[in-house]
Amino acid sequence: VRRVGIVGCGQLAQMMAQEARPLGIEFSFLAEGDENTACVDGLGTIVHATEGADIEQLYKAMGSPEVITAEREGVDAGLLRALEAFCPVYPRPDAFEKTQHRLREKTAITAAGLPVSPFLPANNYDEICAAVKQLGYPAFIKSCEHGYDGKNQWRVDSDESLAAIRDEVSELEYVVEKGVNFSREVSLIGARTADGKVVTYPLAENDHYRGTLLVSTAPAPHVDEKLQSTAEEYLSTLMNAWDYVGVLAMECFVTDEGLLINELAPRVHNSGHWTLAGAETSQFANHVRAILGMELGDTHAARPAVMINMLGVDKKPSLQNDGVWLYGKSLRPGRKMGHVILLDDTQEALAAHIDAMLEELYGPSKRPA
Ligand code: ATP
Ligand code: MG
Ligand code: MG
């Protein structure tokens, strides 16, 4: 049998294993620190990486996988580099190093000749103010590291709101970005093999609530072929420049001036969960295929699909739908507990289902608590 090791034990690891096990692939999981392993219980061997553990022993305890991947952007890149002594690690550790740090990430995107919103580095409050002055309002201030689900970032649109964050920022590294006047947010998921084959999915349109993804619709409504092909060109350019292997997700803003890249995630992505029911091959199966050098699966979507996150709710909705995924995590407010996928023949028909599902999940406000 072929064995894949995954660093991380959350729902992304869970879905990779669930989706690739029918291909006859076995999995083992490396838990970092005191990481909870509930999501992957029963899906393979679980090994705990304790501080200072011998890497070769960890690798062997994982059953000596032929390739190792990771499910979390914030994975310890040093650990991945150490594991590389025993088998290929895909995506490569340097892809994690770039995307873990917003300044390095934006610099790498720019170096590949691709567009991002104007940005400036800043290392303290005074430098943040100077950068905001130069870029103008509204601006986004994001810590270079440890930002996800809109955490560790602030939007400022006036001198008052800038003054208000004075005590929240510290002497860390930040990027200050010019606020983008976008009409929509879309994301592109693609997979690349080590020998350079690339597949991409239809763009998804993403709606966030309080910084967290709530709804993804694919193919993105109102997207024309040109936007799709521009996004594909951007993602392929990045993947080829980085000799990237595996699934890479690219979040973009649609503006009157065209597409801007917001950020990248070197892994399967929440905005690609719709592929579990909506595409011929899921992003999870294609990630595993890519890192094993197998032929990539068809990414075609026969019907419009929508994925709705279950944030802080874990009750299976009763409305007719095309699948509910519950990750088996313990309930906490706002936590990603699972997701629902809806399919229909037209975007219009889907829109009505989305509303009804949001109401069933979240009540009359149709928004998470
Ligand atoms: P994720 O959970 O997707 O990893 P994150 O915490 O890494 O999110 P971003 O994706 O950078 O953060 O930003 C979160 C959201 O904030 C974006 O999806 C977008 O809605 C808004 N946003 C971020 N930067 C900008 C910008 N420069 N202009 C306008 N809106 C922005
Ligand atoms: Mg992010
Ligand atoms: Mg984002």
What layout of secondary structure does this protein have?
Elements: E1 2-7, H1 11-20, E2 25-32, E3 45-49, H2 55-61, E4 67-70, H3 77-83, H4 93-99, H5 102-111, E5 119-122, H6 125-135, E6 139-143, E7 153-156, H7 159-164, E8 174-178, E9 184-192, E10 198-200, E11 204-209, E12 212-218, H8 225-241, E13 246-255, E14 258-265, H9 275-278, H10 283-291, E15 305-311, E16 324-326, E17 336-343, H11 347-362
Helix pairs in contact: 1-10, 3-4
This protein binds adenosine-5'-triphosphate and magnesium ion (MG) (2 copies).
What is the gist of this entry?
It is built from eleven helices and 17 strands.
Question: Could you characterize the architecture of this molecule?
Answer:
28% of the residues lie in helices and 28% in strands. The protein is an alpha+beta fold and 369 residues long. Helix 1 links the parallel strand 1 and strand 2. The chain is built from 11 helices and 17 strands. The longest helix is centred in the middle third of the chain and has 17 residues. The chain has 3 domains: 88 residues, Rossmann fold; 61 residues, Dna Ligase, domain 1 (2-Layer Sandwich); 179 residues, ATP-grasp fold, B domain (D-amino Acid Aminotransferase, Chain A, domain 1, 2-Layer Sandwich). The chain is globular and about 60 Å long. The strands form 3 sheets. Strands 9, 10, 11, 12, 13, 14, 15, 16 and 17 form a 9-stranded antiparallel sheet that branches. A 4-stranded parallel sheet has the order 3-2-1-4, with helices on one face. The chain has a 4-stranded antiparallel sheet with strand order 5-8-6-7, with helices on both faces. The model has no long low-confidence stretch (mean pLDDT 96). The structure holds adenosine-5'-triphosphate and magnesium ion (MG) (2 copies). The site of adenosine-5'-triphosphate has 18 residues, from strand 6 and strand 14.
